[in-house]
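HUMAN: Spend a minute on the protein record below and explain its fold to me.
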Amino acid sequence: DQKKFYIQEFEIDGDTRETFIIQKKIQRFSNKDSSNKIKILIDLKKDRTIKEKNIQNKVIKYNLSLIANVEIIDLNTTKKIKRTFSANQSYNVEDSYSTTVNNSKNANNLLIDEIVDGILDQLRIYYS
């Protein structure tokens, strides 16, 4: 019921790990038998900024943001939909480096899920 479109082409720019995950998650909802053939272009930008520092001027919190400029082209009608999806998440810097890396990964995964949900919602609205 969810698969009302077929992604014939996928062009994605940005950090390789994030782009790969986003492409795979969206690709799962593509249906080869659908008559709605689309092309998706995504330009992904990732940004990490310092959110908080303590009295010793050490970073204790980072803010991670992901911005996806998405263009969906309907190959049957050549109609274009352009949207920008953005997500922000902050994570703590811990005493242990590996814990900080895990916090960063978790924040990153939450951002990816948020962007993918936004894109899929847009596709569901357009093809329902």
User: Anything to note?
Assistant: The radius of gyration is 18 Å. The helical segments are 16-27, 97-126. Residues 46 and 66 are 5 Å apart (CA to CA). The first helix runs from residue 16 to 27.
